[in-house]
Every structure is written in structure tokens, then in C-alpha cells.
Amino acid sequence: MQPWVATVSNIALYVILVATFVGYFPSLGGIITSGALLAALVFILVAFGVGYVAGWGKDHLEDVGALGTAQRNTAAGLIVATQNFSDPNVLVVMTLASTVGLVLLIVLATVLRRDNPAHVAI
After folding, report:
1. Taking the domains of the chain in order of start, what are their residue ranges?
2. Phi first, then psi: what are they for 61, rounded to 5°?
3. What are phi and psi of 36, to 5 degrees?
4. How many Å apart are CA 40 and CA 34, to the nearest integer?
5. Coil, strand or helix: which one is 121?
6. What is the pLDDT of residues 83-96, one digit of tens each?
7. What pTM does this model have?
8. Cβ proximity of 38 and 60 under 8 Å
9. Which residues of the chain have a pLDDT value below 70?
10. What is the DSSP code string of the chain?
């Protein structure tokens, strides 16, 4: 049952992302230039740095701590954005920041992977 639920949840996430961006496309330009996205990215990078420093001295803890600290709970954020704020731009900023943040963390994970030795199964 778990693989089926995982597939359905991934599809639901993609539908939410696309529907949010398509539905609020006219306001995306104003949101991007407002500085909210930049603030979200700075927050993600600061959280990444805090997590990295928390694992200082142990390479695997630095990597996991940095990525785990910088990744937020997108589902919980979307619930808070829709239930507590009447301005629809809050939902758009949350969705955009989560998507761009996820891409940023994938890039950072790729960079972190380079300093880890490859483990070959025998």
C-alpha cells in the first residue's frame, strides 16, 4: 500500500504546484520582485549553515544536519498559509519558496556529495 500512497501524494503535490503557479501567474512578477523570495532563500541558506555547523567535525553529520535543517515541512506550511492568511499571495510565496528552496537543496546536496568517498558493495 505504501508505494501506491507515495505515488498518489507525489501526484497531488505536483498538481498543487502547477495549479498554484497557473492560477496566480499574473501576481508572480510582483512577488518575485518584492524581496520575499530572496528572504526565503536567505532563511534556507542560514538554516543550512546552522545545520552544517551543528555537525562540525564529522563529515556525515555536517551533510545530513545541513540538509535536514534547511528542509522545511512544505505540507504544514501550505496548511498554515491557506488557513491563517486571507491574502492569496502568502500561498504563492510559500509554494514558490518551497519549490526554489528544494531545487537549491538538491544542488547543495550534489556539491556535498563530491567530498564523500564512494562506497562500493562487494
Report:
1. 2-113
2. -75, -30
3. -65, -40
4. 12
5. coil
6. 999 888 888 888 88
7. 0.74
8. no
9. 117-122
10. -HHHHHHHHHHHHHHHHHHHHHHTHHHHHHHHHHTHHHHHHHHHHHHHHHHHHHTTT-HHHHHHHHHHHH---HHHHHHHHHHH---HHHHHHHHHHHHHHHHHHHHHHHHHHTTSPPP---
